[in-house]
Amino acid sequence: MMSSKLVRDKIPEITAAQGKAYRFNIASKDEMLDLLIHKLQEETSEFIEDNNAEELADILEVVLSMASEIGIDESELFEIMKKKRERNGGFSKGIVMEFTP
């Protein structure tokens, strides 16, 4: 059974230069958001394990690609984030809401 995953744009050239032979195809527009969702899950799991900036950058790259897929450019996404932060705050204070039954 063949498995597949979304990879960064330069991976075909990088793997070829390393002498590794993989098959690649281009995802259809209909597949792309689902592939990005799976990639986000993968990158989030890697960040949870490693807690490093590289994995965090991968998460941001995937999120920006997801935004593009739904028609939102990077500056618009950051503007939405800024407005939401102004309205509701961020997460810097570490406030935890407790729920009681």
UniProtKB/TrEMBL annotation:
<protein>
    <submittedName>
        <fullName>Phosphoribosyl-ATP pyrophosphohydrolase</fullName>
    </submittedName>
</protein>
<dbReference type="InterPro" id="IPR038735">
    <property type="entry name" value="MSMEG_1276-like_NTP-PPase_dom"/>
</dbReference>
